[in-house]
Amino acid sequence: MNWHRPKTADDTLLSPAHKVSFSDSSKSSEKRNSARPSSRPSSSSNSRPDSPAGQQRKGASQQRTTSQKREQPFVGGVRNLQRINRQSEALWESSLVSPTAPQPKPFLIYHDSFLSVLGPNPTLQCLIEDNRAPFFHEAGVFHPPTNTLFVTSNQIEDPSPDAVTTRNKTIVITKIEFFSPTDFTRDKVRCPERNYMANGGTNYRDGIILCAQGSLREPSGLIYMEAKRPHKTTTLLNNYHSRPFNSPNDVIVHSDGSIWFTDPIYGYEQGFRPKPQLPQLVYRFDPSTGDIRVVADGFGRPNGLCFSPDENTIYITDTDLIHGDGTTDYRRAATVYAYSVLWEHDCPYLTNRRVFAYADTGAPDGIKCDVFGNVYAGCGDGINVWNSGGMLIGKVQIEGGCANFCFGRNGEMWVFGEHKLWRVKLGDESRGALLGV
Considering Cα of 8, then 9, then 12, then 18, what sign does the dihedral take? Predict the structure, then answer.
């Protein structure tokens, strides 16, 4: 979910009457160098031209499709780092720029350990800007075998008769196939109509799982979609012992094959789901046995979730600060909770719930870990990064903030800013724990 735009997702894009369309491709090219920095800042680098995620911009203008891209000033290099002094009275000095104010330096350093995350030359680029609709909102699933990124949009007006059960809203699934960091094709996924209002997603087997929030008529649940055309889909789960889910929001997969997901009531608040018949819970589903169980409760709006690299900890965000109608209540949670994962009788239980972090701007939505255990979350000012102890070590400021993001290869991240798709390049070793690539 997003702090300034209510979060939802949909599949009515499959309707022939749906009018949203893309051009066949949006390609841009530029001369780039690639580097593989160590985990510490260094001036040396090794050329890796075959690694798209490791390439860095060298100069020259980009060719952009008029409707999808416009020239963006290149942002990168150590000159774009800013240290935030949190000692003594420094934060109150009038000469200090507020970390939440728009700044030309996107990388904010709250602790020196963030330097090894950034690498010697971090960069931020706007790859696509499309003002027609908020195409870049949630899911964010990178599929390494095809070098493809899948993204779900925010809600888009859809006047077609097929969208009546979603209150004339739809959500588009965008597929971006990369040939280099800035050379790619962009297309709309056309998958069966059962995938109503798709939202969060994750890698699963040879394809991806999407959270189908459902509609006033269609049930919500989990959908498996093949990564390759024709993107066939299969319903994995659409009820809790015959009781309908609210509107599943985000999903992850444990190494034992079990699927964990959150289920807030945003769909009901936004008018495309019936009155809830379940609390707002976190679930674990085992496809091999069919076992579906509640693993956590007590949330205002459970949202993003991820495991630590060793899977001994799970992080779950609560975005109760923002309700589905877009209203905010600053007395409510904008919190990342951590739980210890305890195994008994060959089943996992969540214990030792504690506050891991509280977002200072907006609410933490999508959440990921890197291979070192650092925790990243999309917040009202961009990507916030905490170490495994819950200390804020840095931020990647994104204009307008972001709801979600995902890692690619070798320190590459794609960040979703509604009408904009951003590419962030960190140090090569700052890889996502989910894929480890």
Answer: positive
